[in-house]
Each structure stands twice: as C-alpha cells, then as structure tokens.
Description:
The protein has 343 residues and is an alpha/beta fold. The chain has ten helices and 17 strands. Helix 3 (138-158) packs across helix 9.
Amino acid sequence: MKAALYYKNNPKLIIQDVPIEDPQDHEVQVKVMACGICGSDLHLLHGFLKPVKDPIIPGHEAAGIIEKVGKNVQSLKKGDRVVISAGTSCGKCEFCLSHRENLCEEVGVLGFNRDGAFAQFINIPQSNVAKLPDEIPFEEGAILADAVSTPFHAIKYVGNLQKNQNVLIVGCGGLGIHAIKISRALEANQIYAFDIDEGSLENAKKAGATSVYNSKNLKDIIKKIQKEIKFSLILDFTGNYDFVEPLIRLLNSGGKYIMVGLSRKELILKIPSLMVFRSLCLCGSYGSDSRALPDLIDLYQKGKLNLKDSISGIAPLDKINDCFEILEKRVGNPIRFVVKPNE
Length: 343
C-alpha cells in the first residue's frame, strides 16, 4: 500500500510502498478515506515530538471503510463506515474499562506510538473505532477524532459547561476554533476568544465567537474586560503557561481554568488567594476518551455542529507536503487540511 513516512531529521514525509498485514483477531483493517493534518504532525516534522520508532507513518485524524475484520470482531463488518479514535491505550486497566482511556498509563497517540493513517490502510483495535453515519462526509468525520474531540472532552467532561455560561477560548488554532463551535453547540452565553494572530481571530468570528481580542497586550485586555464579564470556563490551547496567573482572575466564582495546550516549560504559579475565596479550579485535559465520538456524532446529526467550513483544503496523499507548507506559512488562515490516501 502507499503511505507517507516520517524519517528522523527529514523535514518532509516520504511517499513509498509499504506492506500491510491482515488484522489481528481483535483488530479491523480500515481503508482510509480521509485523514486530517494536525499541528502536532508539523511538530513531528520539526523534531519537537519523538515517535516510538523510525520510520513511522504519522496521521491520527482518520475515517474510512472497514476492509477486513479479525476473527474475534463481532460488532463491526466489512463495509462499515467508521471514524478512528486518535488515542491509543492498553484496553485492560481500570481507566480503559471505565471509558477514560486518556488516563491510561500507556496512553499514546496514533502516528506517534504506532503507525498512523497517512496510508491507504490501517489496522486498529476494534475498540478504537466508532461507526460513522452516512450523512457525515469522511473528511468531516476524520477531524472528529482529535481537532473536535479534544476540545469537546475539555469543555464537556472536564469543564462541565452548562447552558448560558460564559466561556473564554485562549488560542484559536484548530483546537480553539472547534472549542468555539462546541461552546455554541452546548448553548454557552458569551464566547470570548483571544489570539495574537489576526487571521485566527477572523476564523474565531466566523466560528461563532461573540467577542475577539488580540492578546499581544494582555494586561490591557484584562483590565478592559474584567469590569464587564466573568467566565465560568477558560480553555487555554496555547501552551503558554505565562497566561495562567493573569487570566485566572477573569473566572467567576466556582469557575475552571482548563489547560489543554502543552509546553516544555514548567508551570510555576503563585496561587492567588482568590482561588480559595472563589473556589476556583485549575486543571488539565489531555486528549479524549471513547465517550466523545458518539456524543459528537449526536450533536452533528442534530444540526448543532457545523464542520464544513473547518476543512480548508483536500489533497491526495502525494501532495501532503504541500499541505504542510501551507499550514506552516498559514496561507489563507487554514483550520484543517485533509488528505485522501485512496485518491
């Protein structure tokens, strides 16, 4: 089969033919119809993230059609449309057995901890796929796996967003834009968005943010808005830990500051006394679990989640490096590129 492989210290993926084995007893083989390109894939090319092997097939936002099933697979069959979960886990621990796979000690990411979906086919455990209804296009179904499910997990399961609460989204890249869409779908009241890039802020407006601010002068922005609004939920997708201490002061009593973006720096925080007085919570949220995809598909089918304008471009697999170049240069303010390995 044709696949795009990452080789250490190579700034571009290499398209080549690689063998594909039959699925194991508990696995399904999926013909990949669409796979999204994530910012973390770009970090891989830059050497910021280290895969478990070299070379490796990246790609963790995928949807497709089941081609083969292992002998122990009963709930899925050849021809089923599916979306593949981005996360990998052991499948046996207390967290995996209680649908909290992202807390598993062996948690990983497809395309980093095992071969991913920038390929024509992929073998994956049956527990890592969810059926994709016919009305959801493959390219939109693919990005459900991470770009949409990661912010959904943070908002719904960690943040427990309630109707008419105010939300602040910090960082309006692929995850932040979908956090805005999800907040709208869950009927938040005011949705504020911060970013330092004007193109990203324009995307935020289109996604449904009620107010957007360029946060280059963060102190001035905080001073301006803290008299007019408080937030029940702040979601930080930037990985810039310097934002935490000033922004946490914008939380309403009982509010949560949820850190989703990752950083190599340590978080050093002087806990303000208002965290105690107002019963504030600072917590992290990593990836998502098996609850997310069925819940997101339900929102989509109810017409509450529009992902059509999240797809900035579609390309065949042999044009994947062109997509990476556009994504890095942010030509046209892209949200998600999708490759189709079988076209």
